[in-house]
Amino acid sequence: MSVAAGSPPRRIVVVGASLCGLSAAQALREEGFSGEIVLVGDEPERPYDRPPLSKQVLRGRCGPDTTLPCRPDLDLRFRLGTAAAGLDPRARRVVLADGGTIAYDRVLIATGTRARPWPGDPGSGPLHTLRTRRDAERLGARLADRPRRVVVVGGGFIGCEAAASIRAMGLDVTQVVRETVPLVQALGDAVGAMVAEVARGAGVDLLTDRGIDGIEAAGGETAVVRLDEGRRIETGCVLVALGAVRNVEWLAGAGLAVSDAGVRVDAECRALTPDGRVVPDVFAAGDVAQWPSAVYGGARLAVEHWGNAVAQGRVAARNMAAAGGPLARHDHLPDFWSHLYGLTVKLVGVPDGADRFAVVQGTLRERRFVGIYGAGERTVAAVSVDSARWLPAYRAAIAEGAPFPPFTGALDQPGFAPHPLATA
Amino acid sequence: MKVVVDLNRCQAYAQCVYAAPDHFALEGAEVLVYDPAPGDAARAEIERAVQACPVRAITAFPDAAPGAA
Description:
Keywords (chain B): Electron transport, Iron, Iron-sulfur, Metal-binding, Transport
Number of strands of chain A: 29
CATH architecture of the largest domain in chain A: 3-Layer(bba) Sandwich
Number of helices of chain A: 7
Organism (chain B): Methylobacterium oryzihabitans
Shape of chain B: globular
CATH class of chain B: Alpha Beta
Low-confidence stretches of chain B: none
Pfam families (chain B): Fer4_13 (PF13370)
Strand content of chain A: 25-35%
CATH superfamily of the largest domain in chain A: FAD/NAD(P)-binding domain
Protein name (chain B): Ferredoxin
Mean pLDDT of chain A: 95
Helix content of chain A: 10-25%
Strand order of the largest sheet of chain B: 1-4
Largest sheet of chain B: 2 strands, antiparallel
Radius of gyration of chain B: 12 Å
Order of helices and strands of chain B: EHEEHE
Helix content of chain B: 10-25%
Low-confidence stretches of chain A: none
CATH topology of the largest domain in chain A: FAD/NAD(P)-binding domain
Distance between the termini of chain A: 40 Å
CATH architecture of chain B: 2-Layer Sandwich
Number of helices of chain B: 2
Oligomer: heterodimer
InterPro entries (chain B): Fe-S_cluster_ET
């Protein structure tokens, strides 16, 4: 069991003023930490929620102010609009992009990710990404001009949610997906095929198995997207949704184990050196952290999920506030939700490496079902579409390492009929 | 007010929709859409929604005072 060392901290610096950082700050106060909490953020806004940006905000159902609720008595100090530029664990200080420094007793790295841009995208003109509030405002303003066709590049969740939202505004949408079906890496071919059918049914021009040779600016807000098969699409707005890049560059030279997969931490959220030793007083959590998952035999996970940002931020906070005594472990089972074309898709667990899939309740055709993912003899994940109330039972079973299927008495199928799963 | 709903927890029991119909809505079977920044006049309704949620998925607090942390 790991035990906290040293004297109680007086100043804790949280680098990253987003969901994870705010969750950690709240948990620090709940743990009784009465010292100074400083949140450093590169964006000018107080911590805000991102999931609505691709959904109700994009559709104009609510304004772009998704500031997260915050207990009024937290007594936080914010350093907003200033990115962190370096970490010096020996001197215990964070270096800011404006040249300032902030000393810490303990620091939490929660710098998250940023949208992966199209190569050469200047961040203006017809090309858009969707990650920040500023992105959502710029894209929303462009969509309000009702461009005659929007091209969405990418078949992940942001691309699919945005395509659904933009189509719901009555705009023509072409979505270009490199894979055979959208969401195939996240959910596999069967669920991805269902999403493709729903998207096409909603009137999205969904092009799968298609690459893009180039995007040419055509003056002002217009562009031409050149597909690899030669087709050219003239468009007034391109949303590039090609996933995220972890914000780790500022940690160069800090002596931490850092890669494109994130900041390596132990189960107690403590940052590690490349040879696996704990870096004193440096913690990481949220999208930027890569942790060993006890649920999956110690496999290193790094996820970009709302639920993990909250949960891991809280565990890190508890351990940062500790002065002696056992440390808490992050034994979180990953989970997320998505809203697509009026359907709610929820996943618990990690289907990476799964080779089988079975619908256990409902049917794909009804678009209302629970499905499970098997890897070897184990159930590693479960998905629900408009069947969220069934999912907690599967969550508990997956966390305990259940077989595949975890229970047979719950089937409403003629029999248990797993199919081979493709995720590419 | 500022509102956030943990949609991992939400199971679409729709009690918030009854408690604060101007600020929470269900679209389709389970898609909960809500206003993340309702006016302070909505405070009583929003607090009823927080209490009504059977899975305790809603968090709401009044806006931070300008300049305060």
